[in-house]
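Backbone-to-sequence.
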């Protein structure tokens, strides 16, 4: 069922350039553009996850401007898209919040630009999501991607968008849009 899908954009823990665990910076573009994609595909909640208070404050400032201040009247479509955005300090907080809403922990789905073992195709994952009543949480990493410790928490891992390309470095905004379209497409099961 596609009415209980969630997405989290992880800024901590993520891999740094040297494969160490780091916190990455929140960008306004990711908050705005991913929320528009999530709203278009009826994602129930889009979580921006950062352990740094100053980074969470950036998310709060964006949301306040577009949901409470001048932006709400200036661009109602942008305001509506941003209603799906939530912020969290840690992945555990996201899981707890979804569990409190849904009554059950979400099924975690790992995404990566890197190849790995036991990666599901988009058609396989789409079938799983469409036939399940459980909430699913898609995890997207920033910086150099999600660490192995996050993969170990996940029930499923998706194949990369373009693993065999000679240039495999999509923006996370583009990857989210492509992956949601591959999983949901034009939902005809309404």
């Amino acid at each position: 069922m596609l009415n209980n899908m969630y997405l989290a954009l992880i800024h901590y823990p993520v891999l740094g350039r040297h494969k160490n665990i780091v916190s990455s910076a929140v960008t306004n573009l990711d908050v705005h553009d991913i929320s528009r994609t999530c709203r278009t595909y009826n994602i129930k909640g889009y979580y921006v996850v950062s352990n740094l208070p100053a980074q969470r404050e950036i998310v709060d400032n964006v949301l306040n401007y577009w949901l409470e201040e001048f932006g709400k009247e200036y661009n109602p479509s942008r305001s509506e898209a941003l209603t799906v955005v939530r912020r969290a300090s840690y992945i555990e907080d996201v899981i707890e919040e979804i569990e409190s809403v849904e009554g059950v922990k979400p099924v975690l789905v790992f995404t990566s630009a890197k190849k790995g073992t036991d990666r599901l195709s988009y058609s396989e994952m789409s079938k799983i999501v469409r036939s399940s009543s459980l909430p699913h949480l898609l995890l997207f990493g920033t910086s150099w991607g999600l660490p192995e410790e996050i993969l170990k928490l996940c029930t499923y891992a998706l194949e990369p968008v373009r693993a065999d390309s000679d240039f495999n470095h999509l923006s996370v905004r583009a990857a989210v849009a492509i992956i949601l379209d591959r999983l949901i497409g034009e939902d005809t099961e309404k």
